[in-house]
Amino acid sequence: MSADGATIETHATGTTKLFMWVWVWLLVLTGVEVLLAYLKLDPQLMLILLVGLSLIKSALIVAYFMHMRFEKLGLFLTIVPALVFCLCMILIFVFPDSLRIVRMHP
Amino acid sequence: MSDTELDFSAESSWSGGVSPYATNSKKLGMWLFLLSDSLTFSTAILAYAYVRLSSPNWPRPFEISPAVLNATVMTLVLLSSSLTMVMAVHAGHKGKRKSAVWWIIATMTGGVLFDVLHLSEWFRLIFNEKVTPWSNPWGDPLFGGTFFGLTGLHMLHVTIGVIYLGIIAWGFGRGKFNADHVEVSGLYWHFVDLVWMFIFPMIYLMSVNLKS
Diameter of chain A by CA atoms? Predict the structure, then answer.
């Protein structure tokens, strides 16, 4: 986070090598996900692992490809907590009901 | 607490006359749009999760080959097109206009290839497997609705992205747009990639046929 908050001009940081590595990691994590599907794990464990891996992948994309790591902290604090809050609000109302229906299954 | 005890640097960023995010308004606008668009996709994915959890016979029709392999290749294409978009933004900021335009064209090619692979998958499901948004041969009819709804919404984003990038490439090549326009279009493209990182596992990998 630079101190020169007054300058409008911001430039992309990061090297080609760094972006290549991020790309390689995204491919590796995708490979792991496909391997999990190939192993045909228990659906509940599978869901937890897949959501975890997807969150790591989206964090890599946002941080490096979308340059969030090189922006001011204020931008991150404006966007991400709002998204997490909205998602929590949706989950609070939707999931208890849906899980109740699962338990009603024979 | 008196005013003098406040953090002076924070006060100077937010008291007006400066850009608190140290960025241009286009980029902030795109981030706010992506915030709202990610909620659109989140609610669509949660709706899918909801109907799936509440259904006693939700189908798991996809085999590793061809469905999952096809979707894996699509993921590879989209991830690679994100890398070429990063290169375009990089070249744009360095002032290499021609190079940036070619990288954007490479990104658009990735987007078109993704659409072609995706549509061939759709046509295989529609014409060979007789899947429609309201019926399918395997189980709960809502499967088709959620599948075509989610992947269709994403495909629409990819298609709009290709058109958007085409306009940016044309304008940047002719000097009508600057490097910031390229960077902002890059944000949109990476977001489309990011959404696929959730749709691919939730739609395809969670629907791999466990019985075969």
Answer: 63
Q: What is the CATH number of domain B24-207?
A: 1.20.120.80
Look at residue A12 and tell me whether its pLDDT is greater than 60: no
Nearest residue on chain A to B9, alpha-carbon basis: A3
CA angle, B161 then A74 then A25, to 5°: 55
The closest CB to that of B53, out of A6, A71, A101, belongs to: A101
**Do residue A83 and residue B49 have CB atoms under 8 angstroms apart?**
no
Higher pLDDT, A100 or A10: A100
| Domain residue ranges in chain A | 14-70, 72-106
Residue of B42, B107, B194, B203 to mutate, testing the A interface (most A Cβ within 10 Å of its Cβ): B194
Retrieve residue A102's tokens.
């699962």
Looking at residue B55, its pLDDT comes to 86
Distance of CA B38 to CAs B4, B32, B65, B108, B128, Å?
Answer: 40, 10, 30, 22, 33
B48 touches chain A (CB under 8 A): no
Q: State the average pLDDT for chain B.
A: 91
Which of A39, A66, A46, A54 minimizes the C-alpha distance to B75?
A54
Among residues B120, B43, B132, B29, which one has the least CA distance to residue B74?
Answer: B120
pLDDT confidence of B16, banded at 50, 70, 90?
confident
DSSP string, B150-193: HHHHHHHHHHHHHHHHHHHHHHHHTTSS-HHHHHHHHHHHHHHH
- The answer to whether the Cβ–Cβ distance between A12 and B90 falls below 8 Å is yes
pLDDT tens digits, A54-87: 999 999 999 999 999 999 898 999 999 999 999 9
> What digits encode the pLDDT tens for the residues B178-196?
999 999 999 999 999 999 9
| Contact between residue A9 and residue B183 where contact means Cβ atoms under 8 Å apart | no
Residues in chain B: 212
Instruction: Note the Cα B125 to chain centre separation in Å.
Output: 22
- The pTM (predicted TM-score) of the whole model is 0.89
Query: In this model, does residue B11 exceed pLDDT 80?
Result: no
